[in-house]
Batch of 3 targets.
Target 1
Amino acid sequence: MTVCATCSRELQPEWKYCIYCGTRTGVPLTAAIDIIQADMLQADMLNSDMQAGPQHRANVGEAASATADAPAHAPVGGYDNTDTGVLRIEDIPLDDPTPSGPAAAVEEPAKFNVLAIAALVLGCLANPLAALFGHIALSQIGRSGARGTAIAWAAIVLGYLSLAAILVLGISYLVLNA
């Protein structure tokens, strides 16, 4: 398997450009297209040769030798095999992994909501205010996109459980001491 000279990532044989950093890989254009174009050109020449006279056959032979002497980047049969330097959609595989390196923007994760953490601490101390702080933290998380939704919900549950425990203990104290 070939490796990119710039980013040292593994390359597929059919890639003309590294999908991670954009460096040209040196893979030539598909030879199958050139072969198909050459076969079509040869068939066109044979058809025109059959229909033309001997003088035309001599001209076709000269044209064929001139085409053979032409540089490799000359268009053949209307097909230009020069590389334009443009990355085509066919060069990018469907299962494009996440790019890395300087081109990839690395986002730092969102920070935790401080009020959600404070609500969880209050919930662990069996304070009913944990439910109130948890609801406020959920509202802030919804607006800011910060992390801590699960922490806020845990604090809300602990706050309501502590509120229920305080109510049960208070009612039972009043009933038993009445």
Note: Residues 34 and 81 are 8 Å apart (CA to CA).
Target 2
Amino acid sequence: MSRYHPILVTLHWLLAVLIIGGLFMGSNLLAQTPNSDPFKLIALKMHMSIGIVILVLMAIRLAVRLVTQRPAHADIGNNLINRAAIWGHWGFYAGVFAMCVSGLAIANIAGLPAIVFGGSGAPLPVNFDNIAPRAAHGIIAKVLILLVVGHVFAALYHQYIRKDRLFARMWFGNRNGGDDA
């Protein structure tokens, strides 16, 4: 087995775009927009919708990963780095699920579903600072950003320094070998 299942490949790249977009949106756009700005409702609707889609797709991805065959873990010749890579991948799953759960908790405590999606007409809270899961959401965001940066650097290291074609494993093509990518 030389490649991941095509569903995992598709979900990997789709989730990469959604997660990076959600992190960027939350860390920049939402963080910089006061809750009194009418645009904040539009931005929150987009951010929350993306978060829900991420949660559903991550659950599907985890289920597919658990039931499909996959390539053996990459062996870089260093047991500590090999284990760190495995834990880093599982860290993505844990971090993304924790991010989604903390986001849902913030939304429910602040009454956002009715405000953002239900058109209740109620204003947003002055801020979200006094909502306990908000701190966790911010910390998890920073951890996920570090995981993304580490993941990208590791992929570039494999592709351009080790030249071991590890990148091809997470691309489309013949799963049993071949150079059709």
Note: Helices lie at 6-32, 39-67, 79-110, 112-117, 132-162.
Target 3
Amino acid sequence: MKISGPTNPNLQSLIKELKTCSITNKVNIWKRIATELEKSTRNRRKVNIHQIQKYSNDGETIIVPGKVLSMGNLTKQVKVAAWAFSEEAKTKIKDSITIEQLMKDNPKGSKVKIIC
């Protein structure tokens, strides 16, 4: 079986941007996110809201290199960035953004926590 990596053109361009941002800003967080997103869909991270609730603190920025699923409730004030959100997870998370937007807002990746 030939391993081809992600075939979604949007994901391919995001991975390329993440690697470029990592090199230009000399920050390893974006390279780590790119490596996680390069995995096959089957091996990509899936995180439920209750895991975000458990491992985050108020005011933090959380990044999920995969998909956020809707199991659980989020009572903390956190900003969540991910590659994809389920429809129900979007309604439960008040402050959700894309990884691309987070990378543009915070190119140094400071004060960002990865939840896998």
Note: The two ends are 27 Å apart (CA to CA).
